[in-house]
Amino acid sequence: MLYLKKYFTEGLIQFTILLSLIGVRVNVDTYLNNQLPPLREIILGPSSAYTQTQFHNLRNTLDGYGIHPKSVDLDHFFATRRLLNQVRSLDHLRVPSTEVSAWLVHRDPETVVSAAGQSSPSITLDNGGGLEDVNNPEASTMRGGSGASESTYSHGGEEDSLGAVASEDSQEQPGERDSNNNNDDLTKEDIDLIDILWRQDIDLGAGREVFNYSSRVKESEAEKLNEEEKERGAEERERAESWRNGLNLGEEQPLSPVDGETGESIPEQFQNPDVTPELGSSGEEEVVPSTSQALPLLPVLPQAETPLDLEQQWQDIMAIMELQDMEVNDTAEGPFISNHTTGSSSGGGSSNTTTTTSSSSSSGGPAESGTIGGFGLSSSTLINQDVSLHQASLPSCSQDFPALFNADLDPNGALRPALLRLSSSNSTNVNSTFGATNLTGLFAPPVLNNTSNLTSGHALPDPFSSLLEESMLDEISLLDLAMEEGFSQAQASQLEDELDSDSGLSLDSSHSPASPSNSETSCSSAASSSSTSATFSEEGAVGYSTDSEAATAEMEEGAVGGYQPEYSKLCRMSYQDPSQFGSLPQLDNVNHNHTYNLPLASSYPEHPQLPGPCGKKAGRDKSLPHQSKLQPPREFLDKHSSRDERRARAMKIPFSNDKIINLPVEEFNELLAKHHLSEAQLALIRDIRRRGKNKLAAQNCRKRKLDTILNLEQGVHELRRDKARLLKEKMEFLRSIRQMKQKVQSLYQEVFAQLRDEHGRPYPASEYALQYGTDGSVLVVPRSLAAAEQSRKPDKKQKDKKK
DNA sequence: GGTTCATGTCATCAC
DNA sequence: GAGTGATGACATGAA
Asked: Which residues pair with A770 in a beta bridge?
């Protein structure tokens, strides 16, 4: 714990301050106590064990920091960057409200309570929600022992003002706890809070006596501390085990996916935005009249969906999408009773009994989405049909369809025509829009009591809004963050790898300065191929044209080389001149030598003490036997000669290694023929040529390898970008579909509201629904009949499938 | 002293 | 069949 304290005072405080500045409160204690790896990584930085050693100082070059990959500062750097990314990504998390973790600390003077709040992950339960949950044991049970964060979101409005205080207070908790020890007044609220805490912590193994005030008073401070530590240890072990197993603590604990990047536990409200705390509260259900049979389902379903984790959500999304695809040419299948998802808490009051139009932004369940998919209409088309339907009138439809319906179908027993035909002049528009489709599944308003309010605030969670906007957008947002906020591809890759690292190939070595392009850039002046012309040996030959050899050649032929200062100039320029990397700004700080095809002769520095690749060559040959006492120039040359060069010099080969290696075969043979060479000399020359060519080939081979890796990496990046783009498009399509559904729904409501029977009375939405006939007419159908038709169609479908 | 990286070298295969 | 390129494997020096 010591190191945790250390980092708590450093990284965590910074992190907390950052979060408090933006009004977000995260229960850090939970993660600290649990030792969750992601947060530890955030605080402590990524472990070096998991950090891919970069080829060429990738990270420091990308971010402009001169941090060596092996530097111990790198962890701090990563931690800082991760913290920044955390803060940046918070706006994508849509934290609904702030949270006051220290609220209870002010209210509860008891040390143990505060300690329990601190030591246990349920510290955040000490808010108003906890007070309210006293009367709602189920809610407490749902939160479970570790439901630290989720329960605290149940009071969004009031806590906003307190949110800024929260972080500060949480910092002050230890001191305040001590100062509050003298306050022994326990109010009923405090006792209730203790009960709440006990209910939650008992799941974690904490005994009831921990919260027993009388027994606590008798305990000494040391015992308290021991208990705290024991509790903490038990919780930590439990948490660690649950973390390792990737499971939650128990059935009481709601499934709370952990953010892959932050390690932050995602509250269930985040998973399902439709399950707002207001909906979860018990008071809402009582307000709404529950005379309808369908109504009790409404508050239940959202709760049933709350434990969905992201994977399930994604599967649901895919299922929904498949459902849409399947039902493109199909009619509505879902029970029309499920179309009650027209209202939301944002909906206004009703102006009519049954025909209140819905202004909800979240409408449409799976059945609806499947139904609307069958129209294949653009939203503009739907909008254009709106006006004409306002004028829909109702002639006496009973004359049109006298045989279809009788009084038995009328639940009220009235002689009300059950099937009505709309005015044909207006229905044609509808027909052109919707075709011969049964609208009852799509448009049917909820089967409600006549006095019920469609927009009473209950709504089934929209699978698109709840699933897509969370799970899909998470990934998209990360990708967008990478692409739009100036992140480099390597950083984007890092982000994406945190999302899914499905490749065994470490692509994090991306943008390695050793990229072939770089090496090509760096050695662009040199020949990159061994198939060179005769002029190649003048400048660009690979390092066998040494100065020593050149000196020999100069003595023998007076031809090539000598000790040429240009070579050292080339060496410095090629290796270290960052201007050559101007087109690749991320390579500015790269000093690695990837000038594969540069002549080794050029690597000889003017001054041997100069660092660089030249020295390596010299050092490498230190182990080789030196010639006898040489003059200083000769010794220097020998020091910086390759093995073959020294051999050639020892064997008195009369021409340079450059020529030996790079001359074409014919010229090479001519050269050999010109000189009378011994067998040993010829063998050495052939070896030199073979090794020299092979060295070039090896360099080219490695370059190609890097090329391949980088190309693959680029391909991966492109594919990921495409994936993100496609996901975005998919989201847009879904949004447009949702808007279409809303408009169709409102259209339906308007039409239905204007319908009157022969007595001028409006049709009750609970008994009638609109339906389109095969001839394009719009009919008012009793719901019982519509339901019967609905039930028939799946049977037909199944039969068709069986066929 | 061990590890990683860059580079050279050899063996082998294919053209 | 020789020459050459490509490439895996290994060795070696430097950091």
From this structure: A780
pLDDT tens column, A333-349: 333 333 333 333 333 33
As to burial, measured by CB atoms within 10 angstroms (0-12 exposed, 13-18 middle, 19+ buried), residue A529 is exposed
CA angle A178, A183, A187 (to 5 degrees): 130
Residue A750 to residue A359: CA distance in whole angstroms: 12
What is the Cα–Cα distance from A563 to A554, expressed in whole angstroms? Answer: 10
Assigned token pair, A99: 């949270």
Q: Name residues whose C-beta falls within 8 Å of residue A453's C-beta, 6 or more positions apart in sequence.
A: A288, A289, A343, A349, A350, A356
Give yes or no for CB of A596 within 7 Å of strand B.
yes
Q: Which residue has the tokens 């962890």?
A: A75
Q: How many CB atoms lie within 10 A of CB A554?
A: 16
Measured from the Cβ of residue A180, the count of other Cβ atoms closer than 10 Å reads 19
A691 touches strand B (CB under 7 A): yes
Strand runs labelled E in A406-473? 420-421
- Nearest by Cα to A677 from A687, A688, A667, A685: A685
Say how far A702 CA is from C8 C1', in Å. Answer: 11
Q: A608 Cβ partners below 8 Å, 6+ apart?
A: A614, A615, A618, A636, A639, A640
> Is the CB atom of residue A644 positioned under 7 angstroms from any atom of strand B?
yes
Give the tens place of pLDDT for each residue, A580-606: 333 333 333 333 333 333 333 333 333
